[in-house]
Amino acid sequence: MKNRMLLEFENIFGNSEDIKVFFAPGRVNLIGEHTDYNGGHVFPCSLTVGTYAAVRERNDRNLNLYSVNFEELGIIKTSLDKLVYDKADDWANYVKGVIWAFEKENYICNTGFDVVFYGNIPNKSGLSSSASLEVLTGFFLKTFFKFNIELKEIALLSQMAENEFVGVNCGIMDQFAIAMGKKDNAIFLNTSNLEYKYAPIKLEDAKIVIINTNKQRALEDSKYNERRKECEEALNKFKEVINIDSLADLTEKKFEANKHILENPLLIKRAKHAVYENQRTIKAVKCLENNDIEQFGELMNQSHISLKDDYEVTGIELDTIVEAAWLEEGVVGARMTGAGFGGCAVSIVKEESINRFIENLGNHYKKTIGYEASFYIVEIGNGPIVL
Fold it and tell me: How far apart are the C-alpha atoms of 297 and 228, rounded to whole Å?
């Protein structure tokens, strides 16, 4: 891939001397959805697919940004003196946002650069192509300008860029999972205090299979921010009566005893998902520690039902895929992953059943929805690296 990136750079910018090539992974969340901004636990892992960048420093303050994935947009030209959100700059706003966030924390870039990006994460699939791009940008800034910054802080500044520059009120999970990824491990992360531990993923005779519904979604335009606002409203109502800092501070029992405080049935549903999903995630990690993969799969299934009925972020495409997956032989568990409203589902499937699973699910989805789904058998990889 390094040679390919050097060739791509040469095709766009000419001479490829003094180029460095970087990689940052995508991520999939195994369980713990829409809990990260509610102070709960998540359980993501980084993937061996992700985003690549071939980068060369300039001797001026100009930024020339090109993506192989969006070649129709050509080279997006801007500068270190124009770090403002511009809708016309499309995907490049994520790059500008990270530079902006770095400068807010006194990590000052001295020169501009030419960059060619290429991602083999499906765009807008829910596997965090945007967070991968953000962490990748932070990582090459650290390398080129020799910033004394930890990967954890790169994750936080990437989140800041998405929240305050791009305008998506995301939690920390995506950026953290990508920056801190470790091969063959998922990250059990408490988003309220960023305490984490690595948990080995031992699936033995099974694999992680990701199904892309190919219904693209734009997170900025989705109901993501609306869900977050509803959870904040529920939290504020609870705080008037009980002493909590986040919805994740509630156990299922405490939630059921106090849910009447919310009055609004819609807020009750939203808060219920946040509380129960957090507890499911804690239980799921214990299942893995006890090598109980079957119960882990059952908790994945319960997660999807909650995301469908209480949080209402699935939609016909994701429900069609997941509910058909549950009926297939060899499926340990399946659920939507990511923000929802399209994007991907994640499943654990016995190896001997994978080919049949893909064929049957693919046929059913195309017959029901009218277009094809895509399937990826994925491996768990490391965080960002210099190639």
Answer: 27
Has this prediction a pTM greater than 0.70? yes
Tokens of 191: 């988003």
Q: What count of Cα atoms within 13 Å lies in the side-chain half-sphere of residue 123?
A: 10
90 given a catalytic annotation: no
For residue 278, what are its two tokens? Answer: 């957090």
Q: Which two tokens stand for residue 73?
A: 């947009």
Token code pair at residue 363: 């046929």
* pLDDT tens, residue by residue, 151-209: 999 999 999 999 999 998 888 999 999 999 999 999 999 999 999 999 999 888 999 99
Residue tagged 């119960």 (tokens): 295
User: What's the rounded Cα separation, in Å, for the pair 302 and 286?
Assistant: 16
Q: Which fold has domain 2-200?
A: Ribosomal Protein S5; domain 2 (3.30.230)
pLDDT digits (tens, 9 = 90+) for 326-347: 999 999 999 999 888 888 999 9
Domain layout of the chain by residue ranges: 2-200
Q: Which of 36, 89, 114, 174 is the catalytic position?
A: 174
Can you tell me whether residue 36 is helix, strand or coil? helix
